[in-house]
Design goal:
Strand content: 25-35%
Radius of gyration: 18 Å
Shape: globular
Number of strands: 16
Order of helices and strands: EEHEEEHEEEHEHEEHEHEEEHEHH
Largest sheet: 7 strands, antiparallel
Number of helices: 9
Strand order of the largest sheet: 6-1-2-5-4-3-7
Length: about 280
């Protein structure tokens, strides 16, 4: 049982939740995630940890309310209990001193990217961050990234904030400037990570992506989060969530990500029809 201490709305559909979880806060490393279940009838969903406060014993989760469970989660009042909270899970990010690293966050992908970017910055890397979203309301944590980045580039599809265009356009500009990029870390929608990986690969730049696959138990037992990496089957929860982007079979992953889309929409509609109960 974990208690939701505070909830803050960041945009129309994105919320920041502060949850009491002292043991997870003490052990969490950048790149790791948790799996939670709201109540006995609920599904388990993986969420990445955006920040932590070891003194207060809390972790921060950033959630985009797009499905039944995430909508139910952000509908909880501060002080409510969450039945299950397991973590930290997954392998931590390999953070080493390389030189110039480019962090690319798409939408809520900026949330798990934040502790990773901070880790690279703290050991002396030059950090260039590119944040992208469909519009300014979906672009999160720009102030936090501005504090730790040597350069921050904001991109929106409609040009409502920063430059109009995609994160790949910004990455191409950096490459054209002959900046010696040692690594790209990209987190966001699968399609974004696929095209970032393809672009970086053309120039021989190592690219790490963080996958948010369908997941149930978070221990590698259920097999729900399986992905093809380098021609082998891997489980995102125990072998990831980060992988070499050049080795990921994005096309298969994109197909699997939509398997339960109809069922998820039905569950959300039923939840809303019940007035946000159960």
């Amino acid at each position: 049982m974990a208690r939701l201490q505070a909830i803050k709305r960041l945009s129309e559909s994105v919320y920041r939740l502060t949850v009491a979880a002292p043991e997870i806060a003490a052990k969490h490393q950048p790149g790791q995630f948790i799996v939670l279940r709201i109540d006995a009838a609920g599904e388990r969903i993986p969420l990445t940890i955006a920040d932590k406060n070891t003194d207060a014993g809390t972790i921060d989760l950033i959630v985009q309310a797009v499905g039944k469970t995430t909508r139910q989660l952000v509908d909880l009042p501060a002080g409510a209990d969450i039945l299950d909270l397991a973590g930290p899970l997954g392998l931590p990010t390999q953070i080493t001193k390389l030189g110039t690293v480019v962090m690319i966050g798409g939408g809520v992908g900026a949330a798990p990217l934040y502790p990773i970017a901070r880790g690279f910055q703290q050991i002396g890397n030059k950090v260039i961050t590119i944040l992208g979203a469909r519009n300014k309301d979906l672009l999160i944590l720009p102030a936090e990234f501005a504090e730790l980045s040597d350069e921050l580039i904001l991109m929106t599809d409609d040009g409502s904030l920063g430059e109009k265009g995609l994160v790949t356009h910004a990455l191409q500009k950096l490459i054209d400037q002959k900046i010696e990029i040692k690594k790209v870390v990209a987190i966001g929608p699968l399609i974004m990570m696929k095209f970032v990986t393809e672009l970086a690969g053309k120039y021989g730049i190592p690219t790490v992506v963080s996958l948010n696959s369908l997941m149930i138990d978070g221990t590698g037992m259920c097999g729900g989060c399986r992905v093809r990496v380098g021609g082998e089957t891997k489980f995102t929860c125990v072998h990831g969530p980060e992988f070499d982007g050049q080795q990921v079979d994005f096309d298969t992953l994109l197909k699997r990500a939509n398997i339960y889309k109809h069922e998820e929409q039905c569950r959300l509609e039923a939840y809303l029809k019940r007035g946000g109960h159960g």
